[in-house]
Amino acid sequence: MGRLRLDGVSLRYPGRDAAAVHDLSLDVADGEFVALVGPSGCGKSTTLRLVAGFLTPDAGRILVDDDVLSTPDRVVPPERRNMGMVFQSFAVWPHLSVFDNVAFGLAMRRRPAVEVRQRVTRMLEMVDLAGLERSYPSQLSGGQQQRVALARALVVEPGILLLDEPLSSLDAKLRERMCAELKDLQRRTGVTFVHVTHDQAEAIAVADRVAVMDRGSIEQFGSARDVYLHPASRVVADAMGAVNLASCEVVAIDGAVTVVRLAGTGRELRVPSAPAVRPGARAIVAIRPEDVVIGADGLEAVVREASFRGTFAEHVLALAGDEVTLTARTLGRDVVEAGRQVRVSIDGARCVLFALT
Amino acid sequence: MFASAALLFILVGAPLVALGVQSITVDGRLSLEAYGSVVGRSLYYQSLLNTLAVGAGAAVLSVVFGTPIAWIVARTDAPFRRVIRTTVTAAYIAPPFLLAIAYVILASPNTGALNTLVVSLFGVERGPFNAYTLPALVFVTSLHTFPAVFLLAAAALENTDASLEQAARILGAGRLRTTLRITLPLVLPSILGGALLAFVSAIALFGSQAILGIPGRVYTLPTRVYQVLGYPPDYALASALSLLLVALTVIALALQRRWLGTRAAATIGGRGASTEIVRLGAWRWAALAWCSGILLVAVVLPYAALGAVSLLRARPAGFVPGNVTLENYVDVLLRLDVTQRAIGNSLLLGVLTATLTVALGIILATIDLRTALRGRRVLDYLALVPLGIPGIVLAVAILELWLRLPVNLYGTLLILLIAYVTRFIPLAVRSAHAALGQVDISLEESARIGGAGWWETERRVTLPLARPALLAAWVLVFVPTIQELSASVLLFTPDTMTLAVAIFNFQDNGRLELVSALGIVMLVLASVTIAIARRVAGRPVLGVATGAPN
User: Fold this and answer.
1) Prior bond to B232 cis, omega within 30?
2) Which residues of B touch A88 (CB under 8 A)?
3) pTM here?
4) Do B171 and A153 touch (CB under 8 A)?
5) 3-state DSSP helix/strand/coil percent for chain B, to nearest 5?
6) CATH code for residues A4-238
7) Topology (CATH) of B25-270+282-319
C-alpha cells in the first residue's frame, strides 16, 4: 500500500538563507499518479529526496500509510522504506548486466533464485526489454536504459515509486512515448507514482493530480485540468503554460461575476469573481492565449509579430496604440501576417482574476 | 610532421634498437649468452625476484595506504581534507631517493635516529629497525608510490554519480552493502590502475633500491644493471637485464590501460549529481588519525630528519651546543665547486628540457588536434613509448647508441639533455595535448574568419588561452628534471655533475650532513618554481602528476 503524507515538512540547506522546502503538506492517495511541477530551485527534487529518506527534515513528518518514516529526530533509512526511485541520469549500474541490475533489489530482499528469475523476466517483458538480459548498459540506448531503471525500481513491488526528472535526458519524441508508457505502467501496477518535472506539459500528460510548487511550498494541488483552467495564483497560472497577465481595474462585483476594465483599452470584461478583490482596486486578469480570439469583432489591434509553429501559431498583438500587448494563439493554418489590422475578442468567462498582492 | 617523426625516432626508437642489438651481441658475435646468464645465474634471477617483490609489495601497500585516504578525502566530512590532499600530492612530487636517504638517517641499523631513540628509551642493546632490508625497501618505496593510487581512486570516487549509490540504497542495500556491491566495483578499475602505476614506478626507482638495497646486498634489476656496467662493463648483460625490466613495465602498463578502459570505468561520471558526503561523527578523528599517521611516516618524519641533519656539524652527536650550524648550506652553495656546478647544470638542463619538450608537445598536439595528416596517431604512440622505459634503461640504451656513432657525446651536457628530453616527452606531450585540447576549435575558427592567418591565430588566440596549462606542463617537466637520478647516474662525468647525482654520491660516501643540506636546496628549488608558476598562471599548476621522477 502506498498512501503518502507530508505534514508541515521544512528543510533548509546549511548556509542558505531561504528554506528549500517550507511547511509543505501533501496527501497522495494509494495508487495515485502525482506530479510535482515547478521551476528549477522550487524545492521539488528536495521534496522527493526527503520522501526517499536521503534528507532529514528540519520540521514536520513524512508518513506512508500509518508509518512515520521521517521526523527531525528519526529517519528510516532509504533501504528500509520499500520505495523505488528512477533518477534523471537513470543510474543504471554500468558494471552489472541488465538482469543483475533488475535483480538487485530482489537479491537485497533475499528472494529465492527461481522467484528472482521469474519476476525479473516478467518485469523485463513488461517494459519491452525481453532478450536483453545479458546486455550491459553501455550497449543500450537512452530509452532502453530508462526502461532498465524503471524495471529495476518496479520489480520489488514498491509501495511508492519516485521519479526524479526521469524523462528530461530523453529526446522529444521518445519523451512523448515514455509519458504514455509511464502512465500505462502505473495503471497496470497500481503503484503510487510521485513524478518530479519542470515541464508542465509532461506533468499534465502523466499525472492524475498535479502539485505546483514555488519557492519551497505547494501553490496548488489538484487535477491537471483544474490546475490549468483554474489556477489558484498568478504563479500557478504562469507555471502551467503560456498566459497573458493583464493589468485591470475592478469596476463592480456582482456575486459570481466581476466586471473589470482592461488597463489602457477601456474595454470591460465579465470574469469569474475572486476572493480579496475589492471594487475600485487594481487587479490582474490571466488570459490564456487560446482565449484571445482573432475574428470579425472586438477590440482593434495590430499584429506586431506572428510566428508559425506548425499545429498552432502565436501572435503578439498591440492594443490601444502600443500600451497593451496580448499573445493570441490560433490554429497554425489560421496564422495572420504581421502588420495586419485585426479585431480581437476575449472570452471573460474563461479568464481568472487575481488580487494584486 | 616528418621532421617530428624523425626526431622522435632518433630520441625514442634508435636507442631501443641499439639496446636490442647489444643484448644479443657478445664480443662482436651474435649470441644469446646474456639471456642465458639472466635466466641461469641465480644472482640475476634473484634480482628479478627482488624487483617483482618491490613492485608487487609497493603496489599492495599503496592500495592499503592510498585507498582509505582517497575515500576519506573524497567522501567524508573528516577535518583538514584539503591539507591532506595537498600533502599527499607533495609526497608524489618529492624525489624518492631523498625519502630513502631520510630513512637511512632514521632507521639504519646502528646509528638510525629511531634506533638510538629506542635504545635510550628502553635500555635495550640494539634498536629494532633496519633500513637495509627488502621489507624496508618495499615500505619506503610505497611511501612514494601510494599517491598514485590515492589520486586515481579519489578522482574516481569524486566522479561517481551519487544516484548510482542512491539507487542501491532505495532498493534495500544499506551503506555497507552499497559500498561493497556498487561503489567498490565502480572504482576498482581505478584502484587497480593506480596499483599498476605504483608497480611500474616502484620497479624503476634506482635511487631507493641503490641506497637501501645495495648495503644489505638486496639487488634488483636496476641496481644489477648499474653494477654490471662498473669496470669492466658487460654491455650485453646490462642490455638483457634492461630489456627484462622494460618487459615488466610494458606488461604492467598494458594491463593498466586495459583495466582503466573497462566498461565500468568508462561510464562513471556523466550527468551525475554531486557525490554524497558521509558524516563520520566521532569517527572523523579516527579518519584523521589514519591520514596523519601515513603522512607522518611519508612526509613529516623523513623531511624533518633531513632538515635536522642538514643543520648538524656531525650527525651522531645530535642537537647539542656547538654542533648546530649553517656550515653545510654554506658548503654546498658557496664553497664546494662540485655542488655549485651540479646546481648550475641541473637548472640549465631543467630549463632546456622543459622548454624543448613542451615545444615538441605543442607541435605534436597541434598535428594531432588540428590536422588530418595520416599517421598522426603513430606519432602520439611513439611519444608515449618512453613511459615504458625506466630511467636507467634509457641511459644504457643511449650510451650504447652513441658509443656506436662517430660523434662522441659522452661526458657532455648534451647527452644528459637527450636523455632528459626523451624521458619527459610523454609528460610534456600529454600535458600540451590537454592544454590545447581545452581551446575549442570554434575559438580558432572565429579568429580565422575574422581575418587572422594561421600563425596570427596561434599567437593571438590559441597559445594565450592555453598559456596557464602550458606553464603547468613546463613545471611538470622542470621539477622532475632537476631531480632526475636514474638516467643521470650512468651518463654524468665530474664536469656534467647534476644535483641528484651529487646527492647520490655524497650519501655513498656517508656525508649525510651535506646530503641533507643539498636535498633541502633541491626541494626549495622545486617549491619556488611551483610557487612562481602558480602565481604567474593564477591557479595551482600541479594537479595530477603522473610521471614519477626517480
Assistant:
1) yes
2) 163, 271, 273
3) 0.82
4) yes
5) 75, 0, 20
6) 3.40.50.300
7) MetI-like fold (1.10.3720)
